[in-house]
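quick one, 127 residues, struct below
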Amino acid sequence: MDGQELQKIAGDCTMELPGADLERRFDPDWELYKVRGKVFMLMTDMPGRPVVILKADPDNAAALREQYADITPGYHMNKRHWITVQGGGTVDEKLVKELVLDSYRLVVDGLPKSEQPVDPRTYGRRA
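---
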């Protein structure tokens, strides 16, 4: 998948997430996706390459970077807690959707219970 397709899949995925909002605050080249004011996904172009930047569990982030050539440390973010996904041959639609959902759940889990739009331990998980 190319970078534009990657961004479309990731952006479309957020439309289904309760409480998710899109904000364009920095400049027109950055899209911030938030839940209750907390960022869980960013999209931009790194010199000519469309990318998606997602929050990830530190242990999982390290494993993803080792397993997939198209997943690198988070661009302009904490390298331990964020990953950058770019278009290429190692990521597919299913993985992109899982990574977006994981990022969303991580951020929701950090919110006070009264502000959580879903239960992060069960939302989007199959029984």
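The chain is about 30% helix and 25% strand.
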